[in-house]
Design goal:
Length: 288
């Protein structure tokens, strides 16, 4: 059986979210430990390879893995020749340019022509400053980028941030955003027909999980006379499912999927129309 080899980060919050997403999508993996390097689903269709986040684009480009989960910032930095096939709803961050708070600079174009830039993303930094006509000396660091201006190592920082709190704590200010990033799924250029089909099946399953996270399943007893009013504010995926009750001709049971942020208002509206016995349940997957 031809497996689809999937590379995911070997540790960290991103790894945990991806593993949970794959499990929720129905991929049945055996338990793993921190030292596990590879696991295969019990049906043999999918194999997970655990590697460093930074290495995943190269693993996919070199066809060691067929698809991979990593950050868009990593894909951009490595310039790997891969296809981005799906954006995910987590791992959001911004690639930014920052300087010391007291510097009299409001945007990157205000910077001197000659600058020293500390970053873990040398390719992104060089391409960016080349594009705006700055002669940037790129100083590659593997961590603690925010402290380098105070140490005199650099006068500009290019880094990723999600909240900006670390920059503020080191008395830095953001003067520009290069791009926004999130977790993405990438694929190698050449997939067999079986691998391509397995990839599409996986993407559908992942989308069903992601869509379901924003929904709730609501059911309850409501008066028949209120059905038109209920349909007006609870359309669900198309319209509520209505079922009859034994020994009660005045009421019916409705089943409907609603947006998670509208559950409270939906319950109050149903109660005002005579609804009772209302249940709210989570939705594990939702296939459109």
């Amino acid at each position: 059986m031809e497996q689809l080899r999937i590379a995911i980060p070997n540790k960290g919050r991103l790894s945990e979210k991806i593993y949970a997403l794959l499990s929720d999508a129905g991929l049945n993996f055996p338990s793993k430990s921190e030292r596990t390097l590879q696991v295969t689903t019990r049906d043999g269709k999918y194999s997970l390879i655990f590697v460093r986040t930074q290495d995943i684009p190269k693993f996919v480009e070199d066809e060691v893995a067929d698809i991979g989960f990593t950050g868009f910032d990593i894909v951009t930095e490595t310039k790997a020749d891969v296809d981005k096939i799906m954006d995910l709803d987590f791992g959001q961050c911004d690639m930014i340019v920052a300087v010391k708070e007291e510097d009299d600079v409001t945007c990157s174009k205000d910077l001197p022509t000659e600058i020293k830039v500390a970053t873990s993303f040398p390719n992104i930094a060089k391409d960016y400053f080349d594009s705006i006509g700055k002669n940037a000396k790129i100083i590659e660091v593997s961590g603690a980028t925010e402290i380098t201006p105070r140490l005199g190592l650099s006068n500009v920082v290019v880094d990723i941030t999600s909240s900006g709190s670390t920059l503020k704590s080191n008395k830095l200010k953001i003067i520009d955003k290069i791009f926004s990033s999130s977790a993405v799924i990438i694929a190698r250029k050449r997939l067999s027909e079986t691998q391509r089909q397995n990839t599409q099946n996986l993407l559908r399953a992942l989308n069903s999980v992601i869509d379901a996270r924003e929904k709730k399943y609501l059911m309850g007893h409501v008066p028949k006379a209120a059905l038109e009013d209920i349909k007006a504010f609870l359309p669900g995926l198309s319209s509520p499912t209505v079922m009859t009750l034994m020994d009660d001709d005045e009421h019916v049971v409705i089943h409907v999927v609603v947006d998670a942020d509208k559950v409270y208002d939906s319950i109050q509206h149903l109660k005002s129309l005579g609804g009772q016995g209302i249940l709210i349940m989570t939705v594990d997957q939702m296939v459109k």
